[in-house]
Write a structure and sequence with these properties.
Number of helices: 18
Largest sheet: 8 strands, antiparallel
Number of domains: 2
Strand order of the largest sheet: 3-2-4-1-10-9-11-15
Radius of gyration: 25 Å
Shape: globular
CATH superfamily of the largest domain: Glucose-6-phosphate isomerase like protein, domain 1
Structural class: alpha/beta
CATH class of the largest domain: Alpha Beta
Distance between the termini: 11 Å
Strand content: 15-25%
Number of strands: 27
CATH topology of the largest domain: Rossmann fold
CATH architecture of the largest domain: 3-Layer(aba) Sandwich
Length: 612
């Protein structure tokens, strides 16, 4: 949600910031703006809508500055419009700020500032913050840096901010709590951004700010302190991503590019960790914790959205392979309960971005109760990676499309590896089955590649169902989470209402919806529930439902019963989700494109949900 880009150095700031904001469009937003220090004047330009609309509005203007801040806003306080867009001025118009997050006590601060004569232009909490910083500086006579720290000690909520001042033309001040912020270090220049995508074109040297840290660039030098003025030495990391990874590479959309990248991203998630020839399985980030995993009486998985669906798959995996009781929790619900967590419980937190606010809060709650926390995320250096005791990166590469595709299969792959390693450590899996599953995992990328041979057929089916207003997805066992994920993908990007259910639950309500206009997608691969799924299909066909079935290659029974069939290669039941989800991703994509949707940036959605 929201995106920050800021720059100070020797380049033209406007074009650099604008390009960076375009890189961050995938995060979800409804307005954009920039603040530039031009010839001793602090000017703000902002616009409701896409970054391209801001760019069009500024076309032809001479915007020369070597320092500036930019923002893409996802509305929280106040509707999306030009006035509520960031950046925001202080009352004296000498300071400007961009902000991700929410200041929860802004109303009380605003009331106090109004009593002192401050006037506000917007409805946002962010404008209140910069007025508050100005007020503190005026009252104390302290430096802007000190005023920022004092203000942040008083506010309640989450933030990533960058502040600039007309009186300090070469200075930027940045801080974070609960919202990501990364600093790129170039040659006599510095870049600030919500993630590394706007920075990678200029430098691979970055510093990730921690919570309660304040970074100041002054006179070409970077310093970092916490809110209590304790200085920390910046830890410079090297970015692994390449610029090509965040380009479309000839595809129409990032989403379809990322769907077709899955053979590689799944392989990358296993690279260096798995070798079936000698039954080798090594997870470096967890190797010192396998005993604790194997001895756990209970695993609690916390996640949101697609990551929650990956967690549901993991529930089956850990219970089947390692015989450990697993509970899968929505992080947003878990954090507001008083859950029973014991010191020998293992909590696994799953997040693509590693910045999901609810999942981070769930981690802190579980840590306070003494649990051991493992993280599964994609972004190196992210908040979850730093907040957990141990974990494993998925190595899926940047995922720009808002609707997760390769993140899901990468998460399932890594969770499968963890479940297998735990089972091996615990002795609940035979050597024969262990090696068989490792071999099967190594073959998954090729099997996913084979599913793509059906892309044109899936596109034809999608064309038939562009009319639909509702969809039902049904699956059993490991295919039940896949049904949920398929339904989520369709509703996210096409805006068609879709629901996923365990197939056996159809008779407990959803069957009332079945008629000749209702498309029903069955996950009907050959597994231990196959005969039951066949019965469920017959029940739907008896009520004239239109059935699309995902079946195992060579199936001769189901194709004669249903309206449309999509085949996937035969796969070990444990690993079925890695191939059965692919047709559902393609189906959703093609339906959405045919309905004229913006599949990479669906309305109202953000890639990384960094606020509640």
């Amino acid at each position: 949600m929201c995106g920050i880009v800021a720059y100070v150095g020797n380049k033209e700031a406007y074009s650099l910031i604008l390009k960076g904001l375009k890189r961050l469009e995938y995060r979800g937003y409804d307005s954009s703006g920039v603040a530039l220090l031009e010839n001793g004047e602090l000017n703000i330009y902002k616009k409701k809508g896409k970054v391209s609309e801001l760019e069009a509005g500024l076309a032809g203007k001479e915007l020369h500055a070597t320092i500036g801040i930019g923002h893409t806003r996802w509305a929280t306080h106040g509707e999306p419009n030009d006035v509520n867009a960031h950046p925001h001025f202080s009352n004296n118009r000498k300071l400007a700020v961009v902000h991700n997050g929410i200041i929860e006590n802004y109303a009380a601060i605003k009331k106090n500032l109004i009593s002192k004569g401050h006037t506000f232009q917007s409805e946002t909490d962010t404008e209140v913050l910069i007025h508050f910083i100005e007020d503190i500086q005026a009252e104390t006579g302290d430096s802007l840096e000190s005023a920022v720290k004092l203000a942040l000690k008083e506010v309640v909520g989450a933030y990533a901010i960058v502040v600039m001042s007309v009186d300090q033309p070469g200075q930027l001040i940045a801080a974070r709590k609960g919202s990501p912020l990364v600093i790129g270090i170039g040659e006599e220049e510095y870049f600030f951004a919500s993630d590394a995508t706007p920075i990678i074109a200029y430098t691979k040297n970055v510093v990730y700010l921690d919570d309660y840290e304040v970074a100041v660039v002054r006179d070409g030098k970077l310093s970092i302190q916490n809110l209590d003025n304790t200085e920390t030495i910046p830890y410079i990391q090297k970015l692994e991503m390449e610029l090509e990874a965040i380009e479309k590479g000839g595809y129409d959309h990032f989403m379809i590019k990322e769907i077709f990248e899955q053979p590689r991203s799944i392989a990358d998630s296993m690279r260096g960790r798995l070798r079936s020839s000698d039954s080798h399985l090594q997870l470096g980030g967890l190797s010192n914790h396998l005993d604790k995993l194997a001895q756990a009486e209970r695993i609690v998985i916390v996640a949101c959205g697609t990551s929650w669906h990956a967690g549901l798959v993991a529930e089956y995996l850990f219970e089947e392979l390692a015989r450990i009781n697993v509970e899968v929790e929505y992080a947003s619900e878990f954090r507001y309960r008083n859950p029973v967590i014991k010191e020998n419980d293992i909590v696994i937190a799953i997040s693509q971005s590693g910045e999901t606010a609810d999942t981070l809060a769930a981690i802190e709650l579980a840590k306070s109760k003494g649990a051991t926390i493992f993280g599964v995320c994609n972004v190196v250096g992210s908040s979850i990676a730093r907040a957990t005791h141990a974990g494993a990166y998925t190595h899926a590469g940047p995922e720009i499309g808002v609707a997760s595709t390769k993140a899901f299969t990468a998460q399932v792959t890594v969770l499968t590896l963890i479940a297998l390693a735990t089972a091996k450590q615990k002795g609940t899996i035979s050597e024969e089955v262990f090696r068989q599953l490792l071999t099967e995992l190594e073959n998954i990328p090729d099997k996913v590649e084979k599913v793509f041979e059906n892309a044109s057929k899936i596109k034809e089916i999608a064309f038939i169902f562009t009319y639909a207003r509702n969809f039902i997805y049904l699956g059993r066992g490991l295919n039940f989470p896949v049904a949920l994920e398929g339904a989520l993908k369709l509703k996210e990007i096409s805006y068609i209402h879709a629901e996923g259910y365990p197939a056996a639950e159809m008779k407990h309500g959803p069957i009332a919806l079945i008629d000749e206009d209702m498309p029903v997608v069955f996950l009907a691969t050959k597994d231990s529930s196959y005969e039951k799924i066949v019965s469920n299909i017959q029940e739907v066909k008896a009520r004239k439902g239109r059935v699309i079935a995902i079946v195992t290659e060579g199936d001769t029974l189901i194709p004669g019963m249903v309206d449309f069939v999509i085949e996937v290669p035969e796969t070990h039941e444990i690993l079925t989700p890695l191939v059965s989800v692919i047709p559902l991703q393609l189906l959703s994509y093609y339906i959405a494109v045919m309905r004229g949707r913006n599949v990479d940036q669906p309305r109202n959605l953000a890639k990384s949900v960094t606020v509640e």
